[in-house]
Amino acid sequence: MEQIVDFHTHYIPDTIAKFEADGCTRLEIETPTCGQLYEKGKHYRTIDERCWDAQRRVNDMDERNIARQVISPIPVTNSYASTPEDGLTFARLHNEGIAEVVRARPDRFSGLGAIPLQDPDAACKELAHIRNDLGLLGVEIGTTAAGRELDDAALIGFWEQCNALRAVIFIHPETAPGFERHRNIPQFGAAGSYPTETGVVAAKLLLAGYLARFPDMTIVLAHGGGTLPWMLPRLDRFWGVTKAWKEKLPEKPSVAVRGFFCDTLTFDATNLELVAKRIGSDHLMVGSDYPFGVMEDPPGAVLGDTGFDEATKDRIRAQTFRRLAAHVAGTA
Length: 332
Description:
alpha/beta
C-alpha cells in the first residue's frame, strides 16, 4: 500500500509576524504554540504551531503514516486587497518561507507559493521566481482577485505564464462577491460558499476552453471540485443548445472536465465516487486541510469507505501526485 501524499495542507512562515500593511493579513504569535490571524483589523482565526513549525508537521505525518505534505498558504493571506507593492512583499515572504521548508526536507515537503494576483504583471514575475528560482510546484490562488474573475481577459498573461512554466495552480476559495450574504451563519462561508464558488469558477474556466488552450499547466480544484461534478449534466445540456459555448469548447463539458485535478476533501465516499466517475479517479489526490479543526484526520480516511479497488486507492494516495510532479519537472 502506498504511503499518502497530502496535497491540501496550509502553512504560514513565522516571519510573516514581522510584516504589517493595509490589505494584508496580520499574524501575531503570542507563544511558541499559539498565534492569531487578523483580517481587515478583525480577528480571523486562532492558529497553533502546526501552521509554522515544520518539525511538528513531520511528527504528525509520522504518526499518521503520511509520506509527504504539499504546503500552501492559508487562503485568507492572499491579501488581494493590498497595494501591488505590499502584496508582492507579502507573497515573497510566504514563498521564501515555504521554499526554506522544502529545501530543508525535500523528502517530506513540496510547496505551492503565493502571488499578488491583483497585479497581473507582478503575479507573472513572482510566478517565474517561484518556479525558476525557488523550485516550487506552482501557486495557490483564490477564485477572484481585485474584482476580477479568473477568466478575465486581464489575466490571460498569467495563464500563459502558468502554461509556459508547467505550473500547478491550486484554486482554493476564500472570499468572493456575495459571500457577505452568509456572514450571519458562523462558518457557512467555508462549509457552503467555498464548494459552490469552486464549482462556478471551474465551470467558467472549463467553458472558456482554458484546459485545452493551456495544456501544460495543471489546475487542481480544492474540496473535490466543489459543486462542479454535480453541475456537469446541466452544463452538457446547455452546451448542446448554446452556440457560443461550442465555439469556445468543441467537446462536451463532461469530456473536457477530465483535464482538471481535484483533492479528495469531500468527507463522504458517495460524493467522492461521483467525483471519480466524472473527473477521473486518476485525477484525484488526497487532501486533508491540515492543520485546521475541520481537517480529515487521518488524511485519506474517506478512501476506506469507497468501493475503489486497491490499485485505484494507491493512485489517489500517491501515484497521481508523483505523475503530476514529474510533469511539472518536465520528466514525464
